Amino acid sequence: MRKAAALAAAAVVAAAAAIAVRQRLREAKRWARVAAVLSDLQERCAAPAARLLQVSDAMDVEMRAGLASEDGSKLKMLVTYVDSLPSGDEKGLFYALDLGGTNFRVLRVQLGGKEQRVIKQESVGVSIPQHLMSRSSHELFDFIAAALAKFVASEGEDYHLPEGTLRQLGFTFSFPVKQTSISSGTLIKWTKGFAIEEMVGKDIVAELNEAIKRQGLVMKVSTLVNDTVGTLAAGRYVDDDTMIAVILGTGTNAAYTENAHAIPKWHAPLPMSGDMVINMEWGNFKSAHLPLTEFDQALDAESLNPGEQNYEKLTSGMYMGEIVRRILLQMAQEAALFGDNIPPKLETPYILKTFHMLVMHHDVSPDLETVGIKLKEIFQIESTSRKTRKLVVDVCEVISTRGARLAAAGIHGILKKLGRATDSPDKRRTVIAVDGGVYKYYTFFSECMERTLSDMLGEDLAPSVVIKPANDGSGLGAALLAASYSQYLQADEDY
User: Fold this and answer.
1) For the whole model, what pTM was predicted?
2) 96, 134, 357, 470: which could form a disulfide with 479 (CB 3.0–4.6 Å)?
3) Where are the domains of the chain?
4) Is 48-79+240-470 a domain of CATH 3.40.50.300?
């Protein structure tokens, strides 16, 4: 009897041991599959120095093609009509309106010239009601002009407008526009949820000026710019060597100062300054040298603009988090990364924001507790091992590293076009103004980008290229450009 019991117990122990061995083997195979996916991802996302130089060369070539003719390149290389950037001599009271999406900001600034610079600055943000985004242009611009009039009415005694002069407004409009002068441009199409079809093809500055008049406000739009040009202006205001501006946020773009003689498609008289600011619209850059994966190809195919904005889809806040989600989903499907059942939320497109990605990537706690918290909050994954959390961080690092290194290659391409990426006797100082949430808050991304650019330039040239943050460049830059171009028009009775 005892012998039988002992045998039975031994059998149970043996069976348990066999189960444990099978579980360990299964676990080992699971992690081997996960490791294989990660290794393949690292290999396909790799952006070694040689490839980055190819991307830089391609950017240079596309820039030249875009400057040569209107349809010569994926890069629009838009002539902005901004041929004079702020010098620091600007004086007076100026306003800005920054319309970039479902919110807008109005800003006023009192400028005191070289000695005093920005004496005082104030701004207020306003949300646009959902129904106005698809109604009529009159209703939308009347709402904006009313908010502007209210803001002007709160002008305190610290702000001084010379008697008999007209308030000047710089207008940052971050939608696709065909610019026709420094203060006019026709809307190409709405994005970001707006759908006022009657406005397409119309001059948006004219619409805003009419709405301002209906409010009885004595003010006129003197400059129309996009956020990247505003950032360039804000950068130049504080540093005369600022030549390039880059936005790395939800989207990405770059603008720079070009020699007017180097723009073959420019047929108008050359500007007095000899320079012209070019809005590259570089998010649409495309090259065979960009390291794409099946995750990028699927994202592009399922996007609202397949085949467009390839560079933006690799480097911007709109898309990097979504690429990470797609990779984690494949790991869950092929290797049960989060257990036998795939978390339903993991299959929801764009549920993982790049902000979530950077929070997880920046987790330095021993057990990666923040990663576990975020996985639970976003995907409702109740519990994860440290090994799983570390894998998630590794995926974030692969995608952010690729994006940062490609952003550096793009900047290097601009420097190459300007003749500032190769050694020269004078080693001219070049300042790059950078703004946007990805650059500002994703520390790993910004540090990796700056380090990569420095490596590409080499130790002799790198010290002459300086990257400077340009916080709130789009709003302040618009006001500064209004100041640059303003002649303080006399307010007349007809206006």
Assistant:
1) 0.89
2) 96
3) 48-79+240-470, 81-225
4) no
Query: What tokens were used for 46?
Result: 């790799």
- The enclosing H or E element of 415 equals helix 386-417
| pLDDT tens digits for range 115-155 | 888 889 899 999 999 889 888 889 999 999 999 999 999 98
How does 178-195 read in b/e, with b if 16+ C-beta sit within 10 Å? ebeebbbbbbeebeeebe
Which of 114, 178, 189, 192 is catalytic? The answer is 192
**d(C-alpha 432, C-alpha 490), whole Å:** 37
The pLDDT tens digits for 185-223 are: 999 888 777 888 899 999 999 999 999 999 999 899 999
Q: How far apart are CA 429 and CA 452, in angstroms?
A: 18
CATH number of 81-225: 3.30.420.40
The residues with which 91 forms a beta bridge, in sequence order, are 112
Q: Is 427 a catalytic residue?
A: no
Report the C-alpha gap between 16 and 24 in whole angstroms.
Answer: 12
- φ and ψ of 279, to 5 deg: -90, 110
Catalytic residue among 60, 203, 227, 435: 227
Q: Which of 279, 251, 280, 242 is nearest to 437 (CA)?
A: 251
pLDDT category at 165 given cuts 50, 70, 90 is confident
SS3 251: coil
Burial 289-315 (b: 16+ CB within 10 A, else e): bbbebebbeebbeebeeeeebbbbbbb
Distance set, CA 161 to CA 98, 108, 183 (Å):
21, 12, 21
160 against 4, higher pLDDT: 160
Q: Annotated catalytic, 202? A: no
CB 298 within 8 A of CB 271: no
